[in-house]
Task: inverse folding
DNA sequence: GACTGACATCACCATAGGCTGATACGTTAC
DNA sequence: GTAACGTATCAGCCTATGGTGATGTCAGTC
């Protein structure tokens, strides 16, 4: 079984729905957002903490957090006037599984020397 | 052990070197490039094949292939006047491992309810 | 009820990045 | 050698996206 990216391939839809994956990857492809994700993997934080940790401006962080939220990578939990952000493990496990499947397919292809002739 | 993304964290450098990862993720964050990667996971192809499969223009594909190459995701093997592109499994296994580590860290954080107080 | 703090949204600018046509380069075929 | 083909590179356009300051909104605090 392969990535959920393309329409062909062998059967069962992988972990995430197809259109999601591009969005998730684009969300993770930014260094600051990746930093945020890494920080959130250890503890839930609110924007104030992230401002301290990253040195980025509040507005900027708010934008990035919105992107992470819309990609389904983080959950928000309002707590008084604070908003806690927590990483959603499912989003990452799906990606990890997809990449692992791709990697094993690629290894098989490389070892068997599958090559379309011109 | 956590992502190779940030400088802190617990010890061993993960699979890929840090600056690489952003580039790899950016390379994968494009739908067409992801499609290419998916196609290459099953068999090595040259640009002509990819033009047929994706319907994209040759120039466009050449650009995307360059990005994938510079990200270390694909290898090129000249074959006469053709150039075969093959997916490099290592790049994917590294990513898969990193995401799996992140996911398990996130799951632990979620279950234990780690949360920095404001 | 007025104020402060946490956070989101908006409008704007600057840059990056994707797509394209034109073109250059190397290889095979004649 | 010349022509045809596969591929890479270049310059230009256009859209997407990240960063910023100003502003709005809501929840506590006095």
Result:
């Amino acid at each position: 079984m392969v990535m959920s990216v393309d329409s062909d391939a062998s059967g069962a839809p992988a972990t995430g729905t197809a259109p999601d994956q591009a969005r998730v990857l684009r969300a993770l492809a930014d260094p600051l957002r990746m930093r945020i994700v890494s920080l959130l993997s250890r503890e839930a934080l609110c924007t104030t903490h992230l401002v301290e940790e990253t040195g980025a401006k509040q507005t900027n962080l708010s934008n990035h957090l919105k992107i992470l939220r819309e990609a389904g990578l983080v959950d928000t939990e309002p707590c008084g006037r604070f908003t806690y952000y927590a990483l959603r493990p499912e989003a990452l496990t799906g990606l990890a599984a997809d990449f692992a499947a791709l990697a094993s397919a690629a290894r098989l292809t490389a070892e068997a020397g599958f090559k379309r002739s011109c």
Summary: The longest strand of chain A covers residues 74-79. The CA atoms of residues 39 and 45 of chain A lie 8 Å apart.
